[in-house]
Structures are given as structure tokens and as C-alpha cells.
User: Fold this.
Amino acid sequence: MQSGLLNRFGVWVILLLSVSTVMGQISLGPNTHDPIIIIAPTFNYLYSTHSTKFQGFGLNCSTQLNGRLEVGLGTDLIDCPYHHDNGLELYHLKLVPIYGLLNYKYWGNRIWQPYAKVAIGITFMDYKEQNLAIGPELTRKSERGLNAYAGVGTRAHLAKSVEVFLDAGLTGYKMSFRALDINPHGIAAKTGLLFNL
Assistant:
């Protein structure tokens, strides 16, 4: 599974760098105007509290409200082939969160900026469940629930209108007060490029 993660990440990096080149944004130096729209393709990783590794891709679209605050919308597709949760064997678990996000830039200049990020939305989950206490059959399940994320990150300019970013924090894909709900949660990280349009 580790080599699969590296292969996916390598393909994603090559794709993002290719898009950056094609967009013709390779002049050095930061963008001199505040962007109207910020598009961010992302590579996502989750290490759950059950030691399961999830990975996937996403897309965020945001806009700046002022020099420090940025709001937007995003969606991801994150999956894993196997996840053990609450005594159940879960296979082909797919998570599709749709969320609103808020970034707050602490300080910085137009070259480098640290920020705090929160996101909240809804997650659509699909998986096959096996309960060995009942039998070996797989049952397909679809659920949805509250998605929440809080973390910190940093971004740095690569070119005139292109930035690279990395953030990490805590996330839960189906926040619930019921102990036996399927809720992949843990330490999450995102990286990708920001295109300032």
C-alpha cells in the first residue's frame, strides 16, 4: 500500500507542475494583486485512530475577503481498501466530503504565509461491511454525516500566480455522539497548488 501512495503522490505532483507550466505562470515573483478566485487541487492523506491510511484527491475554490480572511468551498474523494472499526470489517471505504472552509492568515508577506484552517460540511460514505459474528457476507452501506476539520498550514509562492501549500490537523468524517457509528477520524494532511486567478 505504501508504494501505491507514493505512485499516486508522484503522478499528482507531475500533473500539478504540468498544469502550472501550461498556465504560463512561470514568471518569478508574487502576484501583485489580490486574487478574485483561488483554485486549489489537493492531495489528501488521513492516518486514522484505527491505524488505517486513507488517501485521495480534492478541489477547493475560495476567495479573499480581506488581507487575512479567505472563504470557500471544497470537495474530496478519499478511500481505503480496508478499515477495521467497532468490530466490523469494512472494505472499499469511500468518503466524499463537501464542505465550507475558512482560512485565517496569521501574518507573513507575499512570499510565505502561515495560516489556520477550519472546514465543516457533510460527508457521503460508501463501503462494504462484513460482520464476522453474523457471517462472511458483505453488505453494501451508504451513510452521511457531519464532517469537521481544524488545522494549521503554510503556503509559499512558486511563481507569479502559483503557490504551493501544506496543512495538517485533526478531522472527523462523520462526527457523532453514538459510540458505534462508523466515523473515520484522525490526523489529516493536504498538499497541493493554489492558482490565484
